[in-house]
Amino acid sequence: MAITDEVETTQTTPPEFRMPQLSVITLVFALCVPAAVALTLLGMAFTGAFSTGTALYNPGDLVTYGLPIVRTIHDIAAAATVGLLVLAATVLPGQTKRHGEVGHSQWKAVRWAAIAGIVWFVAAVIVIILSGIQISGVPVGDPLFASTFRTFLINVALGQSLVVSALCILVAVIIALVARRLTTVGFAAGFALFALLPLALSGHAAGSLEHDNAVNSLAIHLVGVTVWVGGLAGILVLRRTINKGFGTAVARYSALAAWAFGAVAFSGIVNSALRLGTFADLLAPYGLLIVAKASILIVLGLFGAFQRKRIIPSLRADPMNRRLFLRFATAEVVFMALAIGISVGLAKSPPPVSQAPLTGNFARDGLLGFTYPPPVNFARMFTTFHWDWMWLGLIVVMAAWYVASVIILRRRGDRWPIYRVIAWLAGCVVLVWVTSGGAFVYGLIHFSSHMVQHMGLMMFAPPLLVLGGPILLALRTLPTRHDGSRGIREWMLLLTHSRFLAFLARPAVAGIIFAGSLIAFYYSPAFQWAEQDHVGHVFMMFHFLASGYLFFWVFIGVDPGPKRPSYPMLLITLLATLAFHAFFGVALMESSDVLALDWWRALGQTNVAALLADQHAGGGIAWGASEIPMVLVALGVAYRWMKSDERTAKRLDRQADRDGDADLTAYNARLQKMADREESAG
Predict the structure, then answer these.
(1) Of 69, 78, 480, 584, which is most buried, counting CB atoms within 10 Å of its CB?
(2) Residue 225 contacts residue 193 (beta carbons within 8 Å)
(3) Residue 176: closest CA among 230, 132, 114, 97
(4) pLDDT tens digits, 340-382
(5) Helices (H) and strands (E) in the chain — how many of each?
(6) Is 360 left (phi over 0), alpha (psi -120 to 50) or beta?
(7) Following CA atoms 517, 220, 464, 494 in sequence, which dihedral angle do they give, to the nearest 10 degrees?
(8) Which residue has the higher pLDDT, 315 or 194?
(9) Quick check: 652 pLDDT over 60?
(10) Facing residues of 517 across strands?
């Protein structure tokens, strides 16, 4: 439906920001905070969390009870901040007169997000202080507090993650306070979302089994909850501002909420499975809280399904008939607040499955996050799996979205080459193997296996995914916005036509990122960091995949983007990159120092000669495995060059047929004139 009141055409300056009038919904919001806090404390008392302290000394009632209270407020403020910023960046109608600037409802959402962000930041600082006291057991007035608190911030993983999160919150708030353009709002939303990720590291101890899956699932859970809860609260807060665009905004939010619901449900199942040993644990206090939280999730899912089926269609037909929606949405917010309270109570309670780091004979299992596998051989590289549920879920979504999008195209009569579907699905299969199969499992144990994983992430999966043309497919299937807002399609177009991507898409730049990162990664502490630390490993995976995708997209990509350079330049850059990659492989084959030696020793591998031999084998893999995809890409570039020349020749022939070869006639005439002048001069 058309948006009328939200497409601003006369307003030139943002309106004055005013607090809303007191209403029933405002009162409900105000009561949700103490209700969530009360449920947090009740949940901790129910699980016995208050009687199982983690500090060396009793930190006192202020910390014992104050920390979960402040953490609940922290999480509610986080949901409000993230939800409002995501609404402003992707959901709310804007204005069309001044391209790229925020509209009235978007501006109000950002202002409310800034206020919530300030509360979030203050709560984050208090959480840092109280956590430092709880971990050390040293009160603020003690002479040792300053030194122990400094150690907590700098050397303790919990302190480091909380500080990084607080800094990201501060940056998001500052950007939100000055934001006047949608792109700026997008940056604020990005920092706010990133501020959630370090918090996941504090939810599970490093050195314990399934640490990676626990952290990943908690990160997904935090993102899903904040977008879902904060988005709905934002819709209610801005209900009078959106006016006739309300039905469209609710429909857009509903689609976003469906994805968030799926993320919360999926991550919740994974996280619960890791913390409960058996089904009998569901009857323990901790398990009963999980059952209560899952029950609330089911109720919210039913509410959402009813709204999508009954309420939203009527809202789109009559945006002002919103009473039923407001009642359901307000009830949902209450249930969501209660779920947040239960979640904080669970986070502060010891689960049935111990989260303590493994020691003794199981120490190396703790370093890996899974049971040490049997010796590697060719068959086990393809039959051994340890599922990384985050990657598996992401890949399944990628494959399902692609197939669904192709079906949409086919149903409306558009064609999509089958080779692109095969390439994309094959790339997804390769990704599953390198993130959960033998390449991943043994990649943490042997350098040669790690190099197989590296080649899969940079050399084999990316060209297949690039040939799938996902951006082009998305642009052809996603709806177009006309009300000054930005959906996924608009953000994609902004990125693909940005000067930033134009810079990255230069062959030399893409080649340096692709090949130069090999030296920067392996001949620095980054490699050992990636092997022994979950954050480093995730960064490595995404970097290798992204740099490989960028590199091959420049050379064989079918997606729209910056203007491609000439084919000779592409071939020269490709051959230079291939030569550099071969040089890197040879350097590894002739190396005399073991890379990441401390990591291999921590796993019990102390034979330096065997480690060097394995490293040399890894160098051979880096050299040999890179040649096959690079040669195929070079052939592809040469083929496109040839086809481009053929198309140019045909175009010129058709033009010559139309104008009687006017260009050639004019050229011959110029030559004849030059010859006549020379004869006259002679």
Answers:
(1) 78
(2) no
(3) 114
(4) 999 999 988 888 887 777 777 788 888 898 999 999 999 999 9
(5) 30, 0
(6) left
(7) -80
(8) 194
(9) no
(10) none
